[in-house]
Amino acid sequence: QVQLVESGGGLVQAGGSLRLSCAASGSIFSFNVVGWYRQAPGKQRELVASITHPVGTNYADSVKGRFTISEDGAKNTVYLQMNSLKPEDTAVYFCYVFWRTNYWGQGTQVTVSS
Q1: For residue 102, what pLDDT band results from cuts at 50, 70 and 90?
Q2: What integer is the mean pLDDT of 87-111?
Q3: H or E element that contains 8
Q4: Across the chain, where does the E strand assignment appear?
Q5: Fewer CB near the last or first residue (10 Å), C or N of the chain?
Q6: Is 43 helix (H, G, I), strand (E, B) or coil?
Q7: What sign has the CA pseudo-torsion 45, 46, 49, 52?
């Protein structure tokens, strides 16, 4: 079992920044994939960014150049740095891990006001 705890969501004005954190209960480098998804009201959950070990990173086209995913093995934490936020980035953001099966965090709300 992998436990994921997200933090860092909140309300921010358009153009602002937020950093999301996801603390995992195991060694993140042992997981096949770590990443972030988001789900806006009335929409399907979509991939935002991910890291596949040891291949590399992947970003949704809508966030390329604005969001950066990173990880800290010493803290077993995955981060999502979000810059130049837009109202359309408003969603619940979920941390995700694939290791034998899928694991999800509880979600953290990000609201971007115009």
Answers
A1: very high
A2: 97
A3: none
A4: 4-7, 10-13, 18-24, 33-39, 46-52, 56-59, 67-72, 77-82, 91-99, 101-104, 108-113
A5: N
A6: coil
A7: positive
